[in-house]
Amino acid sequence: MPSRPESAPSSRPGYARSGPEIAASRPEAPASGTAAMPFHEALRAAIAASGLSLDRIEDRLLRRGTPVASATLSSWQSGRYQPERQRSLAALAVLEDVLRLPPGALTGLLGPPRPRGRWLPPDGDHPDLARAWSDHHDLTAALAALDTRWDDSLTRLSCHNRVDVDADRRVRSMTSRRLLRAEADGADRWIALYRLDAPGPLPYFSVAVPGRLGTVLELPQEGLVAAELLFDRPLARGETVIVDYTVEHRDPRPYSQRAETTIHVPMREHLLEVRFAKECLPRTCYSFRTNGLGPRPRAGRPREQRLRVDASGSVHAVALGAGPCRVGIRWVWG
């Protein structure tokens, strides 16, 4: 199949790969024993164990005089931000009590404050689009043709990528539906990328209304196509938007054995689905996940989990609070 979209799949000869993003969801760790976890994972596990929604936690913190917005809590547990200011640290101590954790169970896991300053890249904890997609060559200059300034101010709340594989064992299309939230006024577009891992005609994008297609950048030598998906209007801070688009292949499409997504910014929920033609089902399927992005991702074998094809001819895998990483599904034909 095609490429990796930042939440779209991609392909190689013998394999398809998508690039926001999937491996089977990791089981949440219990609230106890969080000392061995990074702060954001321990917080996420404690919230899951408490049974409280983020809105209920927000309400309890407010009633105790230490207000923290549910959006901020979500950013903390995704790993995108961590509490650093005095007011946030005070609220974190109260949060430990709300979640029935021992004092210091979360505050003791905080790393050093992250550097601040207008000259620094946003957050400093994940690769930008160019670095995330620069497997072999630096794409910074090429991607400058697109308006990528809003990429870091759109929180990825959820994404569902669906890859359709036809009876010839080739990827026909990839559809993506995602929910984004603006963290600043003015965001008016989403940048989607898709890479072919094997030479061939680049696919084309179509966008569901009310969205529309902006600038499309094709880099045949990289097997990469990138597109601006324009919203119907600029968003105000806190507003959400649904982005719905399709990547469709021109003939000849690549023979596929894999679909992969690139998640370069932490995402709350990502679902990857592969739907096979019923007359041509694979023998086995596996979900996988590889941490790290760019030319030198972190070493280590991808974690894999076997998947079962359901009655509709589909398999799926979920990633919660994941990134930066690559996640996907691979299959073996009979």
Walk me through this protein's architecture:
- It is globular, with a radius of gyration of 20 Å.
- Helices cover about 15% and strands about 35% of the residues.
- It is of the alpha+beta class.
- It contains six helices and 15 strands.
Question: What descriptive keywords fit this protein?
Answer:
334 residues; 15 strands; globular; six-stranded mixed sheet; four-stranded antiparallel sheet; alpha+beta; 16% helix
Secondary structure category: alpha+beta
Distance between the termini: 18 Å
Strand tally, please?
Answer: 15
For the biggest sheet, the summary is:
6 strands, mixed
Helix content: 10-25%
Please, how many helices? Answer: 6
Please state the CA-atom Rg, rounded to the nearest Å.
20 Å
Stretches with pLDDT under 50, minimum 5 residues: 9-35, 115-125
Summed over residues and divided by their number, the pLDDT gives a mean of: 80
Basic shape:
globular
Would you list the SSEs in sequence order as H and E? EEHHHHHHEEEEEEEEEEEEE
Oligomer description: single chain
% residues in beta strands: 25-35%
Which helices and strands, and how do they pair?
Layout lengths: L8 E4 L2 E4 L20 H12 L3 H10 L6 H9 L7 H13 L30 H5 L6 H4 L10 E12 L5 E12 L6 E7 L8 E4 L4 E8 L4 E7 L9 E9 L9 E6 L3 E10 L7 E8 L11 E5 L6 E9 L2 E8 L2
Parallel strand pairs: 3-11
Antiparallel strand pairs: 1-2, 3-4, 4-9, 5-8, 6-9, 7-8, 10-15, 11-14, 12-13, 12-15
Give a brief description.
The chain is of the alpha+beta class and 334 residues long. 16% of the residues lie in helices and 34% in strands. The protein has helices spanning 39-50, 54-63, 70-78, 86-98, 129-133, 140-143, and strands spanning 9-12, 15-18, 154-165, 171-182, 189-195, 204-207, 212-219, 224-230, 240-248, 258-263, 267-276, 284-291, 303-307, 314-322, 325-332.
